[in-house]
Amino acid sequence: MGIFAEFTTGDKSKFNRFCYIYIIMILVTGGTGLVGSHLLWHLLQKGEKVRAIHRPGSDLEQVRQVFDYYNTTGHGSNKSGGRNLTGDDLPSGEMNAESGKSEEGEGLNGSNPDELFSRIDWFPADILDHPALSEALEGISRVYHCVAIVSFDPSERNKVIKDNIESTANIVNLCLDNNLEKLCHVSSVSAIGNRYDGEPASEEDFWKPSKRRHAYSISKFHSEMEVWRGIEEGLNAVIVNPSVILGPGNWKRGSAAFFTRIQKGLKYYTGGMTGFVDVRDVCRCMIGLMESDISGERFIINSENIYYRDLFNMIADALEKPRPSKYASRQLVEAGWRLEWLRSRLTFSKPLLTRETARSGRSISRFSNEKIRKALGCGFFPVRETIGWTARGLIHNAGGIRQ
Length: 403
Ligand SMILES: NC(=O)c1ccc[n+]([C@@H]2O[C@H](COP(=O)([O-])OP(=O)(O)OC[C@H]3O[C@@H](n4cnc5c(N)ncnc54)[C@H](OP(=O)(O)O)[C@@H]3O)[C@@H](O)[C@H]2O)c1
Known about the structure:
Radius of gyration: 21 Å
Oligomer: single chain
Helix content: 40-55%
Bound molecules: NADP nicotinamide-adenine-dinucleotide phosphate
Structural class: alpha/beta
Strand content: 5-15%
Number of helices: 15
Distance between the termini: 52 Å
CATH architecture of one domain: 3-Layer(aba) Sandwich
C-alpha cells in the first residue's frame, strides 16, 4: 500500500525503484561496446527488460547507431544463402544442417532503432565503483558481463590487468551477495591455452603463464579465474571465450578498425592465422547459454580459423578496395612496431602497431567450436558473410568512417 501511495504523490525515485524490483531483469555491462551494443539489440528483440551501465564519457549514440545497422543493412541474408535472423531463433536445435542457421526468424518486430533504444534503462555506473554497481544490480536477476579494456598498448599494461580483473571480481562478488540467478561472463580465446601440434585449441587447453603473454591475455585469464572462484562459491555462471569478433560498431576500435584501415588502403598483410566469429553468433550463444540449464562451463565461440591474408582480401573485396599485396616479413614487422613506438612517443599518440599486435599478427592459432555446437545445436555465419554485413555497415555509416 505504502509504495503505491508514494507513486500517486509523485515520488519518482520510489516508482523507479518499484520498476527495477518488479520489472527489470537483465543487466548488461559494457553495453556501449561492440558485444554489449549488439547484445542489447538481441535482448530487446526478445522483449527482455534490460538495464545497461554507462560512464559519463560513454558514447550512447554508438549503441543507437548499431541498432540502425540492423534496421538498414539487414541482419543476415546475403548471396551465400544466409537467412535473416532475429534474436528469437537462438540456438535451439532447429538449425539448418547445411548452413548451420535457423529456418525461422525472417523479419523483425519493434526494430525501429530509436524506439528500441528508448527501452534501455541506462544507469550511470563505473564498474570499478562498487556502491554504484551495487545500486545498478538492484532488482536484477541475470547479468551479462561484457566490460573489459581491450588494449594492446604497452602504456596501458597495468591498467588493463588491474581494471579487467577488478571489474570481474566486483561483478562476481555482487552476484554472489545478491544471490542472482545467473551470470554470463565474456572471456576470450586469449584465456585458452596454446597448442603447438597444429590441432585447434579446445576448452580443455589450459592457459599457462609465460613471458610472451600480453597484458590483455593475462587479464582475461585472471578475470575468468574470478568467475571460476565464484562458481566454486555457488554462483550459477557460464563463460564464453570468443575468438576475434567481427561486426559493425565503433570503426576506430577493435576488429572494426581492420575495415577502416583497409578502406584507407592497407598495403601489408602478415602470415598469421586466428579464429573469427560474427558478433550476432556471439550474442545468440550467450543468450542460448543463459536460457539453458548449463552452468559452470566455458565455451569457445568461433566460426572459422582464417589466415589474416585471406581475411584482409575478403574485407578489401567487400569494400571494393585493392587487396593488401605486400607480405610483412618478420624483420619488417619487428622494425615496424619499434618505429611505431618511437612515433607514438614523439607525437604523444597511441601506437597503431605494438609488439603484441605485431606478434599476434604473425602467430598461428586455431580454435575448435565443437563444444558449443554440441551444447546448443548451433551453427555460425561464415566469415565471408559477416564481412559483407560489416562492410555494408561501414559504407552505410555516413559514407565511411565515424569520427
Ligand atoms: N572484440 C573482440 O574481438 C573480442 C574477442 C574476444 C573477447 N572479447 C571480450 O568481449 C568483451 C566485450 O568486448 P568489446 O569488443 O565489446 O569491447 P569494447 O567495444 O572495447 O567495449 C568495452 C566496453 O567496456 C566498457 N568499460 C570499460 N571500462 C569500463 C568501466 N571502468 N566502467 C564501465 N564500463 C567500462 C566500455 O565503456 P565505454 O563506452 O565507456 O568505454 C565499453 O562499453 C570483453 O570482455 C572482451 O575482452 C572481445
